[in-house]
Amino acid sequence: MKFGKVDHPERIDFIIPKDHPDTPVVLSKYRSGGKTNVYVGCAKWNRQDLKNFYPRGTKDELQYYSSQFNCIELNATFYRIFPSDTYEKWYDKTPEGFKFFPKMTNEVSHLRRLNEQVYPVVDRYLEVTSLLKEKLGTIFLQMHNNFDPKNWDRVVRFVEYWPKEFPLAMEFRHTDWFNDETVAQELYHLLEENQITNVLVDTAGRRDLMHMRLTNNEAFIRYVGANHPSDYPRLQDWVNRLSTWKTLGLGNIHFFVHQNLELESPLLSAHLIKQLNPALGSYLHIPATLNGPQKGLFG
């Protein structure tokens, strides 16, 4: 994942900003002391990207991946809408409790940019994606970097069209969505009123996307490591913040680990899980790669 990559990550201030003032207000609506659902995973399961993760002789990558992690951020669906039998195979290969968090096809977000022609595409996408049944997590829509607030009417129409039975998260990347306070407040209100999750992106070169504004009872976090020793203390900071949010009422944590070069993603994910379990009282399986024979890039 090259988005937000910098040449000298050691020069970046990775301290997580303070919460947006409205985030505790939002979370207070959900404070009940109930269970917090925690899902942590990578963005891909293919062997080519996840180096040193699969044991020698592994025949089915998804089957093994889903034995180690409880979810996947499904980036493959950004590039194409797969045939229905592909989704059925994914469902059958994964264990009970596993969840897919698929990315909306780029035909909607990048090629047609939420214009009036996207709705038949959305319907087709949801028709096959729904075959994942109870293993379908939140679908996320990532807009192009140059999709700016001039397109506000398109966003409103899309949100109004979206069928509410499918949980949705939206990721906006143009700086004007967050740097203009009036625009930001209108966007957050729209998402909050429609129970749509505001995606947080933690990457070196775009610290403005760490707006720390939650809009519902879900923290959908896309963490991009820099292939640098700082990746690990950054994750500890997230453990601390998520623990605070749980105390405030957060019920759903969906955390996906990327890297500029995906070599270390399983190791980073396993490290995060090991820290999250005692902090949140969760019992996520710690992937075997954490104590496996391969050593990571940083020790």
UniProtKB/TrEMBL annotation:
Transmembrane region(s): none
InterPro entries, alphabetized: DUF72, UPF0759_sf
Domain of life according to the entry: Bacteria
Pfam families with a match to the protein in the record: DUF72
Protein name, entry field: DUF72 domain-containing protein
